[in-house]
Amino acid sequence: MTASTLPPTGETLSYEQAGVNYDLIDPLKVAAQRAAAATAGHLSGHGFTEVKASRGESAYVVDVGPFYLASIVECLGSKALVADEMKALTGKSYYAGIAQDTIAMAVNDLITVGATPLVVQAYWAAGGSDWFGDAQRAQALVEGWKAACDTCKVAWGGGETPALAGIVEGGRIDLAASCTGIINPKSRLSVGDELGAGDAIVLLASSGIHANGLSLARKLAERLPQGYLTEIAPGLTYGDALLAPTALYSPVTEALAQAGVKVHYSANITGHGWRKLLRHPATLTYRINAIPAVPRVLSFIAEQANHDAREAYSTLNMGAGFALFVSQADAQRTVEIAQAQGIDAIIAGQVEAGAKQLLIEPIDVRFGDDDLQLR
Amino acid sequence: MTASTLPPTGETLSYEQAGVNYDLIDPLKVAAQRAAAATAGHLSGHGFTEVKASRGESAYVVDVGPFYLASIVECLGSKALVADEMKALTGKSYYAGIAQDTIAMAVNDLITVGATPLVVQAYWAAGGSDWFGDAQRAQALVEGWKAACDTCKVAWGGGETPALAGIVEGGRIDLAASCTGIINPKSRLSVGDELGAGDAIVLLASSGIHANGLSLARKLAERLPQGYLTEIAPGLTYGDALLAPTALYSPVTEALAQAGVKVHYSANITGHGWRKLLRHPATLTYRINAIPAVPRVLSFIAEQANHDAREAYSTLNMGAGFALFVSQADAQRTVEIAQAQGIDAIIAGQVEAGAKQLLIEPIDVRFGDDDLQLR
């Protein structure tokens, strides 16, 4: 997909127009990050220290002596609303996939720091007790949650199933997962110290939209005469395509560790799309000379939202769910190890000395330092 | 407070009438617990094992070699709705206290297994970006969160601040916390192996309703002509009393560990009130011969709901927020150590051989094994 193939089928719809206003959230985020950073000293009273470089990374890391401890809590977001709409339209329950999505949000972030996920906790906050009364849906949620734990080889420790009438909307559920893992041996820590010019960029295939960009995707459904039942490819509805569960990448990072491949840095490509490749604070150029195939659901969204390539790649994963930065010598083996775990992968480019920028050459798009402010 | 002092001021209001239907939640809980238990084997692939006795306890524990790892995610519940109502009535922001409540839900559960809390993650899911636009409220939430982390000597690792329009109600926020800790030395593990006849029961004072029983409390407010502004004691409104932040008990459990007091078992007294004292699966009798002072807000709720003593103690904490089971020889020292941390405490009774039951002698109430089905 290139910019020129995006027909102007309608008004351009930005992420903010789709209802998420980052300007309102960000001042709070900054205040919270400052306050959080000021609590790190408490660890010394217990004989431990934080890994300071993990502040601003996707998971928080503490040095507890024999290994590092990593932890995280992550929200599914609004994907469950699509599952609810599709259930009404088709009678099918999509909550097994939704469970996998929720775990993926936590696990795929936790592994970016080099952690092995060990324990997942479930946070299932329903709008009322009656949510749990739909046995088929509840069972799908349980089974999908367990299956995702099985794939990631994590123990499901327990969790919370509150009924929150008045906070969560009636008939809805707010899903999140917390995950705790360890970085063992400590040499697996990847918070960016080892990233450098010459590294290869390996991109792991996404399975679709994953669980980011759903606000936009839902807004677009409202514009379509057939909504979620619009056929976007033969036999594939927009709703079904959106609900493809998020790929779980921890089997790949664990297999890499077992094979002795050192990951210098990694990035989970979620909100902000490919701009996440600029996540590392160093001044480096990321040159991409090969891009993965774009899942039909993402090219469809880009078309319908009238996104040019720049906007599409800055919002959606466009076929790349996770980025691994490894030495050139390990690049091909990294691809093969991922494929052996059932995850397609390509050597997409390399890291170079130079200005902080991402150059996606096949589509002639450049993102600079100003395009990503995550920290 | 005894049963006979509870005047029949109105219709009796049970917890289920207040909107929480455990029958609908419980089948899901059972299915989830079974599926979760079946994932424990994954830990062996990483060289670790679960502490099986922690299944069904308040936090999940894994043996990672040099120490145990404990983790949890906990929801605040509906207490934020009271804060929102009181803000509308008084103009004050109560979110600093609400932040403490949320952390208390996680920390007070985590410590029951003997863990030192190390890292807290924030889960703040708002009904829309505009929730974060109220700078005073957002700032109070940040400051209260940090202050509670300071009290508990935990590092605030980070968290999630999603805007979930369509899932969380407009103007509301769904608050939760995840917490990870370690049990170090491993001898601090308290999942009940050491509980036995002869142990003393020490009860730590609650600061009010904490964050359990709020559905009932809110329902009662609707019946009161002056609602949350009803004076329940000179200069104290019902709303202000309800919003007293939950006591944080980890300073006590940490001080006990430092003083060499071995806790045989403990229970966080939340939902199900004093029936939580029956949490341990063993067949033992818990004989209470002294009860703590009942916070005015709890006696008021019991009066207004027309609860007799049995129902009040089976629903609310009635002045006891946390129970510690220690040897008789350590009982007085446990009380003194708690008081030195600013938490009032009493030696309330002892554990005896006999049928599984809780005898609260000062108010002539007995709970049997059938009265608590938590596992």
Descriptive overview:
The structure is a homodimer of 375-residue chains. Chain A is α+β, with helices and mostly antiparallel strands. The first copy, chain A, has two domains: 3-20 and 192-371, Phosphoribosyl-aminoimidazole Synthetase, Chain A, domain 2 (Alpha-Beta Complex); 39-188, 2-Layer Sandwich (60s Ribosomal Protein L30, Chain: A). Chain A is built from ten helices and 15 strands. Chain A has helices at residues 22-37, 79-90, 95-110, 135-152, 214-223, 238-242, 250-258, 296-304, 309-315, 328-340; strands spanning 49-50, 60-63, 68-75, 116-126, 155-160, 173-183, 200-205, 231-233, 236-237, 265-268, 284-288, 320-326, 345-353, 357-360, 365-368. In chain A, strands 10-12-7-13-11-14-15 form a seven-stranded mixed β-sheet, with helices on both faces. A six-stranded mixed β-sheet of chain A has the order 1-2-3-6-4-5, with helices on one face. Residues 1-10 of chain A have low confidence and may be disordered. Chains A and B meet through helix 1, strand 3, strand 4, helix 4 and strand 5 of A and helix 1, strand 3, strand 4, helix 4 and strand 5 of B.
Chart the SSEs and their pairings.
Two copies of one chain form a homodimer.
Chain A: H1 22-37, E1 49-50, E2 60-63, E3 68-75, H2 79-90, H3 95-110, E4 116-126, H4 135-152, E5 155-160, E6 173-183, E7 200-205, H5 214-223, E8 231-233, E9 236-237, H6 238-242, H7 250-258, E10 265-268, E11 284-288, H8 296-304, H9 309-315, E12 320-326, H10 328-340, E13 345-353, E14 357-360, E15 365-368
Parallel strand pairs in A: 4-5, 11-14
Antiparallel strand pairs in A: 1-2, 2-3, 3-6, 4-6, 7-12, 7-13, 8-9, 10-12, 11-13, 14-15
Helix pairs in contact in A: 3-4
